[in-house]
Design brief:
By secondary structure, this protein is α/β, with parallel strands linked by helices. The protein has 5 helices and 5 strands. Helix 4 links the parallel strand 4 and strand 5. It is globular.
Length: 107
């Protein structure tokens, strides 16, 4: 598993020469409703074991949650199940709001 800061993810998303990663948001629906990145794949953490076949195990996948802990756990689970390009967003959406997009609502 790799780690990425919010600033690094923002640079990646702004770089049209790079393929866009899958943005796997594992927060609950009410959390996503408060603030989320455009183009996410929303799959709450509790649904990952039953829905992992919906994901491409070879695609670069940035796993996102509120503070980076749930995403770390999900990335580890997916890695143990054959996913090869997992990236945890360090600090999650809270760090994104602090470091990249202050308009993103905090909760």
């Amino acid at each position: 598993m790799q780690h990425l800061s919010p600033q690094q993810l923002a640079q990646w998303l702004a770089d049209d020469s790079r393929a866009r990663p899958v943005l796997l948001d594992v927060r609950e629906g009410w959390e996503v409703g408060i603030c989320s990145l455009a183009g996410i794949t929303h799959m709450p953490m509790g649904e990952i074991p039953s829905r992992q076949l919906e994901l491409d195990p070879d695609a670069p996948t940035v796993v996102i949650c509120h503070h980076g802990m749930r995403s770390y756990q999900v990335a580890g689970f997916l890695e143990r199940n054959g996913f090869s390009q997992l990236i945890n967003l360090d600090g999650g959406m809270a760090a994104w709001a602090d470091d990249v997009d202050p308009a993103c609502a905090r909760y």
